[in-house]
Amino acid sequence: MFILGFISSEDKSALHTLKEHAKLDSSWQVQEIIAKAFDQFCKDSGYENSPPQIKEWLTDENPNVCRAVTEGLRIWTNRCYLREYPEEAIKLISIHKASTSQYLRKSVGNSLRDIKKSTLNLLKMKYLNGILMITILHLHTVILKIVIDKMIIFLIYESFNHNLKISN
């Protein structure tokens, strides 16, 4: 089953087979393998190119198919594209917050918590990097001001010495 994830980016019938097995097999072990295979498909296809398939699977009526996406792409913000656009991930999986399937609801809740935690950490890092950049810019400004002050003092001193030489 897992091998289908590796060939599904080249052979769409393999992706279809994965989806059909997700509908038919209720074994959680099989569901985990399908989730990992779907993630492999997205990775091989490029996460940035995968939203059409992600949306297709998430809009399926079968909760196991939807869960393969929500669980397969965890932690969503570890995927480059979804890390840059966490709001896209939130929008995609939030449609199942109130699913009748507890199995799917738990997966969605876990994924949303992961995104919240990761996004907060990213925002903290951006904030701290912003403060660091402002501090560096301020430091450069202070250094530049000192250099300019020293240049002015030097020019005044040179001008004064030049005037003294002329008067002597």
Measured as a percent range, the helix fraction is over 70%
CATH topology: Serine Threonine Protein Phosphatase 5, Tetratricopeptide repeat
> Given the helix and strand composition, which structural class is it?
mainly alpha
Helix run count: 8
Q: Give the class-level CATH name.
A: Mainly Alpha
Mean pLDDT: 80
Content of β-strand: under 5%
Shape: rod-shaped
CATH architecture: Alpha Horseshoe
Secondary-structure element order, as H and E? HHHHHHHH
Number of domains: 1
Biggest sheet: strands, sense, closure?
none
Instruction: Report the CATH superfamily.
Output: ARM repeat domains
Uncertain regions: pLDDT < 50 for 5+ in a row?
none
Characterization of the model:
This protein has 168 residues and is mainly α. It has a single domain (3-125), classed as ARM repeat domains (Serine Threonine Protein Phosphatase 5, Tetratricopeptide repeat). It has helices at residues 3-7, 12-24, 28-45, 51-58, 63-72, 80-84, 86-94, 102-167. The chain starts with a helix and ends with a helix.
Secondary structure blueprint with pairings:
Elements: H1 3-7, H2 12-24, H3 28-45, H4 51-58, H5 63-72, H6 80-84, H7 86-94, H8 102-167
Helix pairs in contact: 2-3, 2-5, 3-5, 5-8, 7-8
Task: Tag the structure with descriptive keywords.
8 helices; 80% helix; Serine Threonine Protein Phosphatase 5, Tetratricopeptide repeat; mainly alpha; 168 residues
How would you summarize this macromolecular structure in one to three sentences?
The chain has 168 residues and is mainly α.
